[in-house]
Amino acid sequence: MEDRRLLDSRQGDLGADAERIGQEFLEGFEAVARIDRPAVTVFGSARIREDDPVYAEAREVGRLLADAGFAVVTGGGPGVMEAANRGARDAGGLSVGFNIELPHEQFSNAYLDISLSFKHFYARKTMFVKAAEGFVIFPGGFGTLDELFESLTLIQTGKVLHFPVVLFDAAYWQPLLDWIRERLLVDGMISPEDLDLLEVTDDPARAVALILECYERHCASMPAEPEKADAQ
Predict the structure, then answer these.
(1) I need a surface site. Which of 15, 40, 64, 201 has the fewest CB within 10 A?
(2) Stated pTM of the model
(3) What is the pLDDT of residues 136-179, one digit of tens each?
């Protein structure tokens, strides 16, 4: 595992390591450049099975995004990722997967038109953001939460523009949203306007409408510029 070797090692050829990482970024940027239309990145658990209602909802979101003219970008694996890519394929849209090499060998799903597998998480995560006009976040675990909060941090600090971030499945996300309001906001760790970075829905059509509305209003051209100094 390249990431494990790099992060564990106290020795080695730093120049060669940096060159390999740079090459992976270049390959990712080249893959993003092949996306010939606006794109939306869909995040969610790899553990969702095909008979789970969340799978059907993610598939429908992927289909509706493709119908609206968006490419669908995912982590390229199973579960929610497969469902969203499959939905894009159902509608004849462009389906993109940026996978990652993991110890348990996460496989690429069968519904990808553009596919690239990464060795380094940080290169892969950059492509999710670089390709996107918005994000739809389905239920998931640590990886999904990492992608959610990285997206919010980049928007909050103005590192990327103000893309819509849509949380799908209100009941799943409500305890987290309550904690954010009752602890982070009350304790002054975030500002009230930071809550405006998130939308919540249970409706695939509404999720896509939120993305489309922002895209048509060019709201992503307006950076979120909080009054505070940082996002810590």
Answers:
(1) 15
(2) 0.88
(3) 999 999 999 999 999 999 888 887 777 899 999 999 999 999 99
